[in-house]
Design a protein that fits this description.
Cyclin A, domain 1, 11 helices, globular, mainly alpha
Length: 270
Amino acid sequence: MEEKQKENQSKDKKESIKRAKFRKKKSSSSSSIFLDTTMLSPSSKDMIKAVAILLKTQINEDNTMIKTISKESDLYYFSEEKYIEEFPEYFDEKKKANIHKSPTIDEISEFMEALYNCVQFSPECCIICLIYIYRIIAITGLSLKETNWRPLVFTSLMICQKIWDDNSLPNGDFTIIYPFFDKDQLNKLEMKFMEIIQYNLNINTNQYSNFYFNLKDLAKKENINIKPLSIYDLEKIRNQIDQRKEKLSKRSDSHGKRLKIGENSNYVIN
């Protein structure tokens, strides 16, 4: 049974790599949506670096607070401690040490770039990803830590890419990044994320703009150039959001009614 599961995972990974290569080739075309029809077109690398700076700042701030997450909490699904326990064969002492140390900005960037190289998400997904992560923080009081930033970024980007990019990928394509996850496990991770944010995947232009300006300010300090948002850019964002409303509604409905805060949920933090 175990051998069969590993064989299936290997097969899924090979298929994912093929699709990722296809998308990378497609994205170099002048007619590709990745170049021409995104909300705006900042350099993906610069945007990822700016997001990494913000996440690192949040991790540093949260490290001043002493909080632990119960293993029974839904939030524990986003702690790598859970997967060290469940998949010890994937974690030698060096990997465990890396997971428990505070990441650098470059390490956060490299993780997101690996995801980008795999699935070629559009630049705006970086910002929407942050909106969703901060939505979880606001709802639960979760602290961003060394052991949870990767699963949170990973899952948030996985959801963003499905909702906000025209050519979305199945969850199985993301197994390249976390090879010990199969498709069923990724589906469960996505479902937990959706439950915690109460299936609220909607954003508006004010939320998008606020995060964009915060990223721009942080990036400027590191000599990273992110262009200002123009009226034309904001109009493109507004149109993109309007186009996604039906898709967002269908996705929420497919998972059932939205939860009220605290309903059928377990966010125990000590």
